[in-house]
């Protein structure tokens, strides 16, 4: 997934969270006010809304109308004819009746005045009559039979769609295994969500077909709505509900995503152009990020109606409780938040905390799990990662693999240095070429001369494998060039030994077995590879599998035979097995040695989408241009 797709996905996610939070805020804005109107519901359908009347609340009035309609509907079903809504004028206003029974009298609380009461009464009559007719039809056996047929047909359609989506899911899964770069897990997730949507649509359709299920669903929805919008507690004069808490939380999450995206762009597009040190850039980005988060959080809480004075009192009381009994738990919790936000360690990194060493498996809010090399899990409180020293082998991006060799006194140090370096330079897929392997003479020991051979790798988990490879190559090269390894030995000197005893000891001493060497040791020193073979590197970069060199345009100007500096860094990391820092250094050295240059000679070599060109390509381009001119 490209950077543009990642940024687009995060932007869409932030917008979706904002829209969802606005949707949740909509009932919050009116939750404190007393409900002015209440719905009249029949078999799970809202027919109309009524207001209060005198001392009767809107909910009591709606309940009376609903019960009257239900009893009238039951009588009509027994009589075999649909109920009828009629309008009758009275001294106090317009009255609606059902089967000649009083139903409701229209009032000013229903949003009426004397001029439009008859029009409103006719509208209510039509709505109530239409709802009663539908309910009466749904109680007939013919409707029940038709609804069952529709449900079976919808179930068959859902099964067919589910089967098609399952086949498509398996096809994409097989293709993802064959070509992981083309197919992404988000596509599989989309198919799973489609399957869930198919069955959710079928369930919703089936519920709406039958009156009893529709009524149950409506009651469950109202219960859920009441749960989310009911007052949980008060902060000062403000009532806090679950929907308000969710809306504030989602908006803060959207703020976090947006601020993180903005800070990332600030660091990569603006701060990187300054001459400030990397640590200074990180400090500026840190203050900008948390400053925006703090201001945004205050604005969101203010918009959500949170009383900061009451909130301060609540936090003070909570702090007293924490100080007495929960300080260790809260300390680990806060340290967990720091680990999640600041990310000094990440899942999958090799770390050591005190006497414990292993891979980070999970970073929780209170504890972190690391897996030891013996495959058992160690649970460590988060405070130990913040308060103590932590060794992280992955953070630097490079790990040293050290091996030690002892050689007897009298060994030619220069010759052995070349032999050991040649052994360390044997190609291995996990050993980096840049920085190259190194050999150091460490010390004089009791048994001989001690040398250290060091190779560099990216994955610290490959240390045992690479160390075994180094020892194998060192043994092979020492044997090839006839260099013996020092062995612990002691010399015993005897004075005035009797000749007869000396002869007897000589006769009892076994003759040492000396195997015939398989090959004659070479006395010529091995060839040592240069750290940088610039000619070979430049040829490979310009070759068929090299960097993308082509004509490019920028600001209506065309540049011939150029490549991006960022592409060159990626190529050097892959083909020359270099770290990112070493790859950037190699690019700068190529620029200083006159192999490449910036097209406008305005920049050093950088890991950025800047145009660079090989001098050889520039010469060939000029020659072709001159030949065309001639």
Give a description of the structure.
This protein is of the alpha+beta class and 630 residues long. It folds into 6 domains: 3-27 and 234-303; 38-138, no CATH class; 141-229; 307-395, SH3 type barrels (Roll), CATH 2.30.30; 404-488 and 497-508, Alpha-Beta Plaits, CATH 3.30.70.100; 534-629, Orthogonal Bundle (Arc Repressor Mutant, subunit A), CATH 1.10.10.10. It has helices at residues 3-28, 58-79, 117-138, 141-178, 185-209, 211-229, 242-270, 278-303, 308-342, 383-387, 413-424, 463-480, 499-508, 534-542, 565-575, 580-592, 615-629; strands spanning 38-42, 45-50, 85-89, 94-98, 101-105, 231-235, 238-241, 350-353, 356-363, 367-371, 377-381, 390-392, 399-407, 438-444, 449-457, 550-554, 557-564, 596-598, 611-614. It has a 5-stranded antiparallel sheet with strand order 11-10-9-8-12. The longest helix has 38 residues, at 141-178. The relative contact order is 0.05.
